[in-house]
# Entry
Amino acid sequence: MASITISNSRHNYQVKADHTAIIRDIPLSYRSETIKQYFTKYSEITRFSMTTFGLWQRAYMVYKDSSTIQQLKTSLWSLNILDFSVWIHPLNLSKEDFDERETYALKLTGLPFSIT
# Structure
């Protein structure tokens, strides 16, 4: 006799969220392979995707180990990759924590390279 497994989609979403990081403000000129390779140094990535939002890209990385997300949550808010800066936050970040990160943020863009 076949068994039926009823999946709790809310539970499944929470499990995935505990393993997922979002990387924002990636310039359109950068390929997904570059971004994925850079973030594999933190832990093994089991799933990776990128989408475009206006003039920027956003990457979603699902890590094998949820402790990687905790590490990113506590130690990294942004990161310089090559010649640009990205925002990093866990998918399961609370609204209060997200608002705190956005409150103390400033990003200057479009400045000539010769400015110091």
Observations:
- The first strand starts at residue 20 and ends at 27.
- The radius of gyration is 17 Å.
- The mean pLDDT is 84.
